[in-house]
Specification:
- This protein is an alpha+beta fold.
- Helices cover about 50% and strands about 20% of the residues.
- The chain is built from six helices and five strands.
- It has helices at about 1-5, 10-25, 30-50, 55-75, 80-85, 90-95; strands at about 100, 110-115, 120-125, 130-140, 140-145.
- Strands 1-4-5-3-2 form a five-stranded mixed β-sheet.
- Strand 2 (about 110-115) and strand 3 (about 120-125) form a beta hairpin.
- It is rod-shaped, with a radius of gyration of 29 Å.
């Protein structure tokens, strides 16, 4: 087994790094990417400096361990990005309080209304087409409106 470690060379680290990065494509999770990057760094460093296999393994372990906090820092969402889109995945909540013009009448308390490229189900008092309505309540994909 020691012979295997002694034979570890620069090209082996580079190949190992690329294999780990390729495995990341098959099993995404961004974990193998950082291990592959650590292996590539060891390979690149060993191109310039002749180092023993023991030091190469230690360097790989250090780079792999250092990659975890770097990954966590880069993967953390930016507070500005969260604040910039508070209604991400909550499209209906973004409509609350806004006013729109009915294209079709509300009959028997139910109807539909086109907002942008989406047709929404609306509930409210019977209202003729062309009336301005305000969204007063949101329940999933159903909007409750009132004439303004």
């Amino acid at each position: 087994m020691t012979d295997m470690f002694v034979s570890l060379g620069t090209w082996n680290w580079l190949i190992f790094g690329f294999i780990l990065m390729a495995l990341e494509v098959l099993a995404p999770g961004v974990f193998l990417f950082w291990l592959g990057l650590a292996a590539l760094l060891v390979g690149l460093i060993s191109f310039g400096v002749a180092i023993s296999w023991q030091i190469q393994l230690v360097m790989f372990a250090i780079f792999a361990a250092a990659a975890v906090p770097v990954w966590r820092r880069l993967a953390r969402p930016k507070p500005d990005a969260i604040a910039a889109s508070p209604f991400l995945n909550k499209r209906a909540d973004a409509l609350l309080g806004r006013e729109f013009t009915l294209e079709k009448p509300i009959v028997d308390g139910n109807g539909t209304m086109r907002i942008g490229d989406t047709v929404w189900r609306v509930a409210g008092p019977d209202t003729p087409a062309g009336t301005r309505v305000k969204v007063v309540q949101v329940d999933g994909a159903n909007l409750t409106v009132a004439a303004t």
